[in-house]
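Quick one: structure for this chain?
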Amino acid sequence: QVQLVEFGGGSVQAGGSLTLSCAATGRTFSSYAMGWFRQGPGKEREFIGAISWSSGNPFYAEPMKGRFTISRDSAKKTTYLRVDALKPEDTAVYYCANKASYRDTWSSWGQGTQVIVSP
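Got it. Here's what it folds into:
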């Protein structure tokens, strides 16, 4: 079974940048895509974007284009989310998730990492 562990959350000032990591563990790791989501206080969880594991091509939800960059290191079974020009409204718990195949849902989730952006 795949387990995902996020790293890199914390408190940052507005205008700064942050890179989150999501490492997959498990002997039978298989991925079609890995995605990033976030849930702000009192808000629904929202999709940020995802990356194709085979090609490394990222795609982003329309509202997230511009300040978010997703990448991956397949040898390390790790995906990264960089957020630039942080705003207080980026305060949220950030999650990564794995989709094992094209028809799969986001079936494996990390525990989440908290990001707090102060003005």
